[in-house]
Each structure stands twice: as C-alpha cells, then as structure tokens.
Specification:
heterodimer, A: mainly beta, seven-stranded mixed beta sheet, four-stranded antiparallel beta sheet, B: mainly beta, six-stranded mixed beta sheet
Chain lengths: 115, 113
C-alpha cells in the first residue's frame, strides 16, 4: 500500500507566474484535501475534492483551483502568483469526505517559493 | 468564531521529563479534536483523536490527551520525553463543517539532553 505522494518537492517561481502541484492519494481513498502552511503557522484549508467534484472550499481566492482525476489523484493550480503564496502545500487523502471521522493521511508537501 | 489556540510556540523540556502541550478551542458545536505531529521535512502524522466517548484518549508514541468540555481544552501529555519526540505538534478540530479541520499555529517541542 503506497502512501500519499506529492510532486515536486520544491519549486521556485516568480510573481505573476502559474504553478501546478500534484498529489497521488493513498490506495482506496476517494477524497483529497489541500492545505497551505505558511512558515510558522498551522495549515489552512484550501479545498477538498470528492469523486472529481469540489466538495468544500476555504477562504482562498478563485486563482486557487483544483482538479481530481478518475484515479483520485489531484492537482492544485495557482494563477498569478503572489509573494504571500510562498508556503508548504500539503495534500491529504481520506476514505471519505468527513474529515472529522476519518483519519487523513498527509503527503510530505511541496515547498513553493515565490520571488 | 471557531478557533484553536496553542499556548507557547516553543516548549522545551529535559529528556525524561513530563511533556505538556496546551490546546484550547472555541466551537459552537461539539468538536472532534486531533493532535498531529510534524517532523522536519515531513508531512503531518496523526497522534490521536477524540470524537465521542471516553474523554482520555491514548495515541501513538506514548502520548495521550484529555478532552475537558468545561475548560474547552484538549492538552497533550507524555510522562517521559524522549529525544525522538522533538518535532512540531499541531492541535486541530472539526467544528460545524464536515470537510475541513481548523488548526492551531503549532508548538515546537524541544528536548534537552
């Protein structure tokens, strides 16, 4: 059984560019959540995907968008990058959307630096 | 507003000493509460969780936490610290949303030899 994987591990972009981050969920998990963790802070929920549909969204602007594929892997896209987007982006997969009742399994994250 | 407060961004204890990491929450509904650990350059790992039932919850690596509704607290303890416990610890809860957790800012645990 493979765990949650994310790619790339590190990324450097410049302001205004676009970025795509990828996540492969744990085998058998149909739900993927994305979080942004700024330095020295806890994770902030971006959105969740369940069976290829956005299932919930946190307080992030529309330039943060996502996709989930039939194999339940997921992408996070960020357009028009800003300096404040520099953070660790975490992906978590779970058996179903109810994060309170199910354990979320986290990937190691992608560290994004925007210059 | 729903929120989580972790007292102390850094906590330092000697190896073998008691570990106590504090977490208080504010929620309008009965919360489900979690503690996660994050080692350097790694993702988050679940230590323990409280949903319903027994208020004293045991987790991995000898950690436990007690849900105290009257104090709106969910403090994490371990009787004897080990050098391998050095990491950042996050308290989180699920409030009135079914799809997201609300997280504290984290407490970095430092173990002195």
């Amino acid at each position: 059984e493979t765990g949650v994987t994310q790619s790339p591990t590190h990324l450097i972009k410049t302001r205004g560019q676009q970025v795509t981050l990828r996540c492969s969920s744990q085998s058998g998990h149909n739900t993927v959540s994305w979080y942004q963790q700024a330095l020295g802070q806890g994770p902030q929920f971006i959105f969740q995907y369940y069976r290829e549909e956005e299932n919930g969204r946190g307080n992030f602007p529309p330039r943060f968008s996502g996709l989930q594929f039939p194999n339940y892997s997921s992408e996070l896209n960020v357009n028009a990058l800003e300096l404040d987007d520099s953070a660790l982006y975490l992906c978590a997969s779970s058996l179903n959307p109810s994060a309170g009742l199910e354990t979320q399994y986290f990937g190691p994250g992608t560290r994004l630096l925007v210059l | 507003a729903q929120s989580v407060t972790q007292l102390g961004s850094h906590v330092s204890v000697s190896e073998g000493a008691l570990v106590l990491l504090r977490c208080n929450y504010s929620s309008s509904v009965p919360p489900y509460l979690f503690w996660y650990v994050q080692y350097p350059n790694q993702g988050l790992q679940l230590l323990l969780k409280y949903t319903t039932g027994a208020t004293l919850v045991k987790g991995i690596n000898g950690f436990e936490a007690e849900f105290k509704k009257s104090e709106t607290s969910f403090h994490l303890t371990k009787p004897s610290a080990h050098m391998s416990d050095a990491a950042e610890y996050f308290c989180a809860f699920r409030g009135d949303s079914n799809y997201q957790l609300i997280w504290g800012a984290g407490t970095k645990l430092i173990i002195k030899p």
